[in-house]
Amino acid sequence: MNYSDYYQFCTVRQLEYLQAIEEHGSARAAAKQFGVNKNTINEAVASVKKKAALQGFSPEHDWTHPVPSTHIARGVSTYYNEEGKPTATWVKADIKQGAHLEAVKEAVAAFIEDVPSLPVAQAPKKFNSDVIPWLQIGDAHLGMLAHAAEVGENFDLKIAEQELCGAISILIDELPPCERMVINDLGDFTHYENYTGTTEASGHALDCDTRFPKMIKTYSRVMRFIVDKCLEKSKFVDVIVNQGNHSRTNDIWMAELLRVAYGESGRVNILNNESVFIAYRMGNTLVMTHHSDKCKPKDLVNVMTSDFRKDFGETEHHYIDIGHVHHGMVMKEHPSVFVESFNHLAGLDKWAHDFGYRNRKSITIILRSKTYGEVGRRLLPIQEIRARLTNASGKIVKPKEVYSV
Q: I need a surface site. Which of 108, 202, 294, 301 has the fewest CB within 10 A?
């Protein structure tokens, strides 16, 4: 393999790894130079080759005409003569959602590969090790815009950040110290995921508050606040970022950013979210999470019992947590599995309002025991959140107006 052919597809660190392999003759020798595991070198090579192939360059397959870095090769056709030698190549270039996600992941990895980790709060000394609180963040729809004249109440980035962070503070401050806590982002944390303010899958136009970069800054700030707040009461924090239909691209890079930002702390674990089904086992309790825009609630039990059959058989208490529907719902589809959706704090956009969708706005922490399953919960309604924020700020939240004679 001529590694120099792949230099154009490398990040700075990947380039150093490939040059070291050529200089020393093996991945093992290159790893010794940098003081890393050999697998780190091999994974870097595989990542570079994958990126190159996405752009139509893979010499071992006779793909030698890469497309521009802004595009992804959607198809490569190679024509061979009677002697089996390539005579012509036809490359079709495009940017599709899946390819776009790959590009985003590569860009994030390159940006943060040498970034130092964030400092974290000191871990509690005494804690409960059997009960794990689950902070259920229903579809936050950060970046959604609503006007009171149209839907009954205003909603924008400022309101979303204030109410969500206020709610998190209330819930975490009430908790006793614990060994482990789960932040369960059930998907659609952001209302949109691109500059056009449309859904990637269907192109539907969305009501958006301000510019995409400002929304991303708010999103990053809120996520860091939530993780830091949980670290005040928990020795370890596990973060689940479910892929949502409004936020899929942001969900991929946010998980990677959090993984790097808190990785060195040894106290924050970001679960792999490349699959839309994420399983979490805690002793005798098994939880599966899924946004539920793709697989409907009635089919989720089959997924749990099929994909995670070993852990399902070894546990007694089973829960499936979903988002997407915005209202609270418990559906018993199996003698030992509870499928539940959770309310959120976001307001209604005009589309949801005009179609008659309504839900109780709240946020929930569920106390799940490794031994006994769910042993309690705290539901915090929007009315309490606003009352406590009002007491702190002196501002008054006006109710929806009713015309009276």
A: 202
